[in-house]
Description:
Shape: elongated
Amino acid sequence: MSGKAELTIKFLIVGGGIAGLACAIALRRVGHHVVVLEQYSDIDILEASIPQLSTSLHSQCVTGQMLHGGIRLPPNASKVLFHWGLERALRQVSMTSSAIEVEIYETGGFIGMHLWEEEVLRETRGDFLFLHRASLRKVLYDTAIAAGAEVRAGTTVVSVSGDGPRVKLTTGETLLADVIVGADGHSSVVQQAIVGKDVLDATPYQSLFYDTTIPGALMRADPQLEPFFKQPVETMFIWLGNNRSAVAFRMGAKDEFALHMWVRPMKKGLSDDDDGWEGGLDLKDMRQQLGECEPRLLKMTKLAATPACVQVKIVPPIEDWVDDHGRMAGSLQGGAMAVEDAAVLAKLFSHLRNQDQILTFLHAFQDLREDRCASVMHTEQCNLYFQMMPAGPQQEQYNQEMRARTAQGESVFGISEASEQWEQLKELWEYDAEDEADDWWVKWGLLRERAKQRLLDMEAEINTARLRSLRMRA
């Protein structure tokens, strides 16, 4: 258990998805009071997590926005959750990845494989976990409630103000807190309150991302798809294509196969007005965008559940994560980064002793996370470009290099403990969010507090000396 804060304050977290619940757990671990405001009701979320109950468009939208499809948790995220005591619960609902198989999107031609070495992953202190988004949210929700967080479902925030700070609900009710955290996803109300505009809405999209699942029973009934369930080790499959890519993997807890697909739009208009997760997209629309793809992928899309679709946007960095009053943390978004954000924020506020430190810790949060998030975003952009590289000499060269490594019995990515690629991955995966926050406290926070205390002591000595002088004169 993390050290408890000497001064406990109230946090309002807007958004009860993965980011919001991870933040709630982390803050409760260090003793703070937490209220999570989630716009969807418990019934909506329950129906969305059970496919046969998701009959209404509203439930489908909930599924798309919060619970749809599979999620991959890399080691830098899983080790934080393991440290919080969630390893057993997560392993019960997840698969642990041991290998990656790379193929050609258009033909299904085999390029090569990469097996994760146990010693290599041990250095990261985490695992690659594959699970359903709904399963991850349930683990986080149950943990947050057990830790003492209050989760108010069916509660919609319409406005946020740093003066208070406060939020206003659709019911007209106003809630006050010491810190408001935005974990409300795309077009965040909290983010808009800080920067004054919808940053995501103003950004053009680069590609479309489809997220869907296929029932395992249907895949096993097809001779071409059955081998995906008979791999000697748990494998993630990646298809590299001309402006297209796909990733597929088995998920724990549910007998389903996750399918993620990225495409440069062939037909404009299908998703031009859709800037976020929305369920209810017609499968025909998705298939029209997929272009030429290998037979197995095409079969998967025909067996798939209704997909969610989101526009992939390269959003420019936000300059201000904290509002002018110094009481509002910026929006927490996205999988592993959301877990890291939560860990850093809570670790900083575990040292809270007085109200004056709140502003300092919020700005420290931005200082610690800004470069890390930018670095990870750059890596993800490079990976996506590699997966969707346009046809041409560069793509062919990469494919030939990977095939050559495979022919020599090496990793398709050339990743080994001595390779440059492994050094880059270690930097990404070995990052420990809580250690980074602890380092800041030792190097800067503690020194600042000591300097402030010395100033107070000096003022006290001066005042004492003045009082003695006055007494002597009297």
